[in-house]
Amino acid sequence: MKIAILADPHIGSQNDIFVENWKAAVKTVNGCDDVGLAIVLGDLTLDGANLEADLAFGAAELKEITAPVLVLPGNHDVGDIASDSVQPANEARLAAWEKHFGAWAWHSDAAEGWRLIGLNSQIIGSGLLAEEQQWAALERMLTERGNRKPVLFLHMPLFLEDWNEADRPAWALKTQDRLRLQRLIAEHGVFAVISGHMHRTLHLRQKDEPVLIWTPASSFLARDESMPSQPGKELLGVTLLDFGKDDISVEFMAIDGLMKSYIEDYKGSIYRSPAKTA
Description:
Layout: E1 2-6, H1 19-30, E2 35-41, H2 52-62, E3 69-72, H3 75-78, H4 91-101, E4 106-108, E5 114-118, H5 129-143, E6 149-154, H6 175-188, E7 192-195, E8 200-204, E9 211-214, E10 233-234, E11 237-243, E12 248-254
Parallel strand pairs: 1-2, 2-3, 5-6, 6-7, 7-9
Antiparallel strand pairs: 1-11, 4-5, 8-9, 8-10, 11-12
Helix pairs in contact: 2-4
C-alpha cells in the first residue's frame, strides 16, 4: 500500500502565501492513482493555534485530497510543547483542533501487516491531562496490535542528533519524554518513526534502531545557519511511502513549479525564528 505524506503546508485563511504550493502538492498526490491513504504531518495551518479561521480553512482544504486522509497537529496548529512559549499547547487549542479535525491521536490498520499510530507531539512533555491520556492510549495501541508491525507518525522529530541530547522543545521532543518513548519503541519493536517539522528530508537506518524518516514541507525552507546542527537535506515536496510485507520504501518527490523561499527571507513577518537552543 502506498501512503502519501504531506507535511508543513502552513496554509492560512488570511495570508495565502503558501496556498498555491499546497494546491500543487495535493494535485501531485491526487495524480498518483495508487495512493491508498494520505497523512498530513502537522502545521497544516499558518496560525491555527491563534486563529480558528485557519483551522476551518485547513479542514476545508483537506477535502480536496481524493484519498482517505488522516491528519496530525503541529506547533502552529495547537501550540508549542514548552509551557513558557508565547503559544503553548493548552486545552482550548486542543478543543479547537478536535472541533475541526477530530482526534489528535489515532491508529490505522489500513496497510496490511502494519499498525500506523499517529501521536500529537505537541502535548508530549506539556504536563496537560491529555498527555497522560495519550501515553495510555499509545500503550494500548501497541499492545493490541497483534502481529502488525508498528510505525509512529508525529509532527516533531524525536531528536536532531541523538537520543540523549539536551532539551530543545522548539525543535524536538524533550529528553525525559523522548527516553520514555524510546523505551516503548524498543519494547514493542517499532519499525519506523516518521516526522515533519524540520522542512528537510532524512531516511536513516541504524542497527537495532527504528528507521527514522523526516518528510519535506510543501511551504518553505530554512537556512542551515539559522538552525541547530541536524542531518538531512533541503527539499520542497511530498513523500510516498510504500508499505510492503517487511519493509517501507521511501520516495521523496520534488514538485516542479513550487515557490521556493526561505523563512529567513520574510524577516519575521510570518514567523519569528526560534533560537538554536530553544
